[in-house]
Design goal:
By secondary structure, the chain is mainly α. It is built from eleven helices and no strands.
């Protein structure tokens, strides 16, 4: 064993943990705040009962859309049961229910504007968003695979340990060791298409996507090569 390297290795590990802790703290604080533009409930006011989603209705809308409103079927872009075969469109099968619902809501605002999804999300009722999210959460995702063996170690290092000298927290600190996410704020990443993950990191960095302050901050500290490496590693997680 190389005893000389232990102090520096320990210091790097501690630094990485501190960075991850700070990032998680920021995410928790953000999660505790009311949604942008939403008023906090008045003291003593009744709290609305949770919406009971209907996954069966969500599945029907996902598979068939609603021709009367010119709302296309989600399956046409996101694949059967949410297993997209198009690298630029995300796999949604098995995604955390509350996360999917939040994204559908966010598409209707200024923080996640995307020409196609913003148009269709605005056509959906709140109940339909809940229903589709419930349907997708119940589906089983088909696994992905890493493709670039030359960057696999770098991607693994970033995902598990972050980039300490850049202040980038380990992805695992929020998204879990196997990429399965942590409700409600942190989505499942395991098995996601490489192209889609890179596109989202790039959108966070460039300001096109603003619905997660921590991700905006962290993505600005990552290079293109680092994004591609971690995205490829994520694709192979199960």
């Amino acid at each position: 064993m190389n005893r000389v390297s232990l102090p520096s290795a320990a210091a790097a590990f501690v630094k990485s943990l501190l960075v991850a802790s700070l990032a998680v703290s920021g995410l928790v604080c953000a999660a505790e705040q009311p949604a942008h533009g939403a008023a906090a409930p008045a003291h003593g006011a009744a709290v609305a009962a949770p919406v009971k989603a209907d996954a069966a209705k969500g599945g029907t809308l996902f598979d068939s859309g609603d021709a009367a409103r010119s709302l296309p079927a989600c399956v046409s872009c996101h694949g059967a049961a949410g297993n997209s075969t198009i690298a630029t469109n995300p796999k949604l099968a098995g995604q955390i229910e509350n996360y999917v619902y939040k994204q559908l809501v966010d598409f209707g605002g200024a923080d996640r504007n995307q020409a196609i999804m913003t148009t269709y999300a605005k056509m959906m009722t709140d109940s339909e968003k809940h229903d589709v999210a419930a349907y997708l959460a119940a589906q089983k995702q088909k696994p992905g695979a890493a493709k670039n063996k030359d960057t696999l170690d770098l991607g693994k290092k970033i995902y598990r340990g972050g980039i300490a000298d850049k202040g980038v927290a380990a992805c695992a600190s929020c998204h879990g060791a196997t990429g399965n996410g942590m409700p409600i704020q942190y989505p499942r990443l395991a098995g996601q298409h490489q192209d889609y993950t890179v596109a989202q990191l790039t959108a966070f960095r460039g300001g096109a996507r603003k619905n997660s302050a921590p991700m905006v901050a962290l993505s600005k500290r990552m290079s293109d090569d680092e994004m591609k490496a971690v995205a490829d590693y994520i694709a192979g997680l199960k």
